[in-house]
Amino acid sequence: VQEPEEKKIALELLETEQAYVNRLHLLDQVFYTELMKEARTGKTVPEEVVKMIFSNISSIYQFHAEFFLPELQKRMEDWNRNPRIGDVIQKLAPFLKMYGEYVKNFDKAVELITAWSEKSPPFQELIADIQKRKVCANLTLQHHMLEPVQRIPRYELLLKDYVRKLPPQSPDRGDAEKALEMIFMVAKHSNAAIAEMERLQNLWVVYQRLGLEDDIVDPSNELIKEGPIQKISTRNNSTSEKYLFLFNNMLLYCVPKVIQVGAEFQVHLRMDVEGMKVRELKDTEFPHTFLVSGKQRTLELQAR
Fold first, then answer.
1. DSSP states along 235-284
2. Boundaries of each DH domain copy (predicted)?
């Protein structure tokens, strides 16, 4: 008898989950545990660094090994009597938010592995030693660490396929569709976490270019636009090169530094966006000019 399509997909979910739990076991119980032991006794690498590399892998491992995999196994053993997995996946979905932290940390983790392998030969040797074991299948630590990053998209694909193949009258239809929607939301959640991390990273780079003035560094700020601008001096009819950074709450009017050590710009003026007005000027001598007036003062500027 040909197995129904949806059962094949459910079995594939179970098989890949089993393999995935083995991979998580390797990451948490072998790499993380042994590197941690080395950090505590050998002092070749700070414990903090090892913790930063593995982020919240222990929680992810325990969740899959102690909850999701056993639940899935029970279901598949009982499939003929009760052909459904949608409700189990609904229980799984909210916990997948844990991945946000791991995914967000992934690039930094890989950088730390590279940096500390150069700094600490014993650290590198221990990793190499574990990688030689049969369980690693000739793959690097970095390669194994990529697996959790790819797991949620994999659930999404398998479940989409499962829902597509379900007969219309299947008892699992309602639950499976709801589960798919939940997984889809979580996948979006982890993409949002990555986007937020990139935003903060870019913001930090901008703050460094500005010389990290206390009152400017604020993680909630959003950079909207930046670029060079000419300042018009009406007194002697000349222009000079300046640079603007527009944030959601302030406009920074800056002077590029000649000697580029440390910051690239010096902030000359900070204008609050609140109450700020911009007016175009019809100046024949200086085209593309406009006035920016705020609580602090008024600037006459020329764009390219």
1. TTTEEEEEEEEEESSEEEEEEE-SS-SS-SEEEEEEEESTT-EEEEE--S
2. 5-193
Which residues does 65 contact at the CB level (< 8 Å), separation at least 6? 21, 24, 25
For 129, residues 6+ apart whose C-beta sits below 8 A from its C-beta are none
- Partners of 232 in beta bridges: 239
Q: H helices of 166-262, where?
A: 173-209
Q: How far apart are CA 78 and CA 10, in angstroms?
A: 12
- Show Cβ contacts of residue 257 under 8 Å, excluding neighbours closer than 6 positions: 263, 264, 265, 266
Among the residue ranges 7-11, 127-131, 281-285, 298-302, the one predicted with the least confidence is 281-285
Tokens representing 63? 């969740």
Output 229 or 65, whichever has higher pLDDT. 65
pTM above 0.85, yes or no: no
Supply the pLDDT for residue 237.
Answer: 74
The 3-state DSSP class for residue 229 equals: strand
Secondary structure (DSSP) of 26-66: IIIIIIIHHHHHHHHHT-SS-HHHHHHHHTTHHHHHHHIII
- What domains can you pick out in the chain, each with its CATH number? 5-208 (1.20.900.10), 223-302 (2.30.29.30)
Report the distance separating Cα 124 and Cα 35, nearest Å. 10
Would the pLDDT of 102 be above 60? yes
- Give the Cα separation of 57 and 28 in Å (integer): 6
How confident is the model over 88-97, as pLDDT tens digits? Answer: 999 888 888 8
% of the chain residues with pLDDT over 70: 95
How much is the pLDDT for 246? 86
Identify the CA nearest to 241 among candidates 304, 170, 196, 177: 304
**Helix 173-209, helix 99-119: angle, nearest 10:** 50
